[in-house]
Amino acid sequence: MIKSFSGPFIATFFISIFVLLMQMLWRYIDDLVGKGLDFSIIVELLLYFCMSLVPMALPITVLLSSIMTFGTLGENYELIALKSAGISLYRIMYPLIVFIVGLSLFAYFFANNILPVANLKMGSLMYDIRKHKPEVSFNEGIFTNDLEGYSIKVDRIDKESGMMYNMLIYNHTVVPGNYEVTRADSGLMVTYPNNNNLELRLFHGHTYTDQGMEPEYRKTYPFRRLEFGRQSVLIQLPDTELKRTDEDLFRAATMLNQSQLKYMSDSLQGVVKQRKEMEVGRLLSSSYLKNKNPAPETDSTLRAETQGKIGNIDSLFHTFAPEERQHAVNNALQYARDVQQSVQADAASILRQEEQIRKHQIEWHSKFTTAFACFIFFFIGAPLGAIIRKGGLGTPAVVSIFLFIVYYIISMIGQRAAREAAMTPCFGSWMPSFILLVLGVFLTYKSVTDSEMMSGESYANFLKKAAAFFKKQKENV
Length: 477
Fold this sequence. Notes:
Elements: H1 2-32, H2 39-75, H3 78-84, H4 89-131, E1 143-144, E2 150-157, E3 164-171, E4 180-191, E5 197-210, E6 223-236, H5 258-287, H6 296-306, H7 313-318, H8 322-388, H9 395-419, H10 425-448, H11 456-476
Antiparallel strand pairs: 1-2, 2-3, 3-4, 4-5, 5-6
Helix pairs in contact: 1-2, 1-4, 2-4, 2-8, 2-9, 4-8, 5-8, 8-9, 8-10, 9-10
């Protein structure tokens, strides 16, 4: 059984990795094209991509290979022969169950120890690639900020000659701000392969320079306008060698193992709890009651002096003149608005921190759900293959893709609901596994009882019986 299973397993694993890798490359193609990357950098990035895709590829590989293996056995009547010899389906599946348990343990180890490192290195490398810009391209009607210190807009570009028309250039190299602006009727971009310089050849335009870069000097320094027929602007490009950033600067939830996730989650919970207590104390002490003098001893003295003299705050308010009343009301409303705005800002910040806590908790559970998904998909694929009795990549591939899409959609719904606090991170992470577990138990039962649920003839007979029943009922009426 293991020999029959290993062939489809290895083949479908590499097919799954290839398909998922093409999807990921298509996602990041804009960040990779035109960067002049070395071959070693590309190979390193592809390796990180493949490692990050292993947890997603393993469940669908187990599902597809198990359907193919047991479908081929059923198609060749080998399952019938084994059952006729008195060997139950559980006994036939036993060697593969042991293999799948080992594979699930490996999936957990990979997701907890190898995947965070791969995600960390992939995120760091992608950040460096995005920042690496040896080549510059302009888009029509859009400001391009790829060149450090310059902001350039081109209205129209001739695709054949490369001539750019109606150019607007803001020079920020000397000091930030729009103190030097160049407008040209046309221009060309020229690069030199032997150095890192880019030349912009501008034709027929003006350069406007405000010499007074500081407000106090604008009256003493003149404004300069320069007209030119041809002007060259030499811009130094970044180095062609990719600069690597320190990986410790990248620490998202997907780049941590379970112990790190637990530590970060507990730390954030402590910070949020302390901040809530501090904000409640601040609101009660300084915002709930507005005193002229917030000192406790002065406040107690004022209360003692006014005790028994002021029976009702409203009666004291009505003793004021109309102008004083309106002034007091306006001050109170403004103070309430300021407190409300401060509370809303603090609440939004606390909600973001709580969302980070839920993300860490979801990622902690995902280390287990990835491994458990391999186990569940085997108990879906093996009995389903025995019921379908079709080998090859045709029917098994269609059924596997459909089931995996259902699992993926339920998983995304559960994780999103958990991130938005609509359900707990535990339930949101394990919801798709529990749903598919029920399906696996049902299919295993149907396979053990030799159900014909995938037989077209059985459904045809059922429809015929239903039609005959309704026809008989109609005749009786």
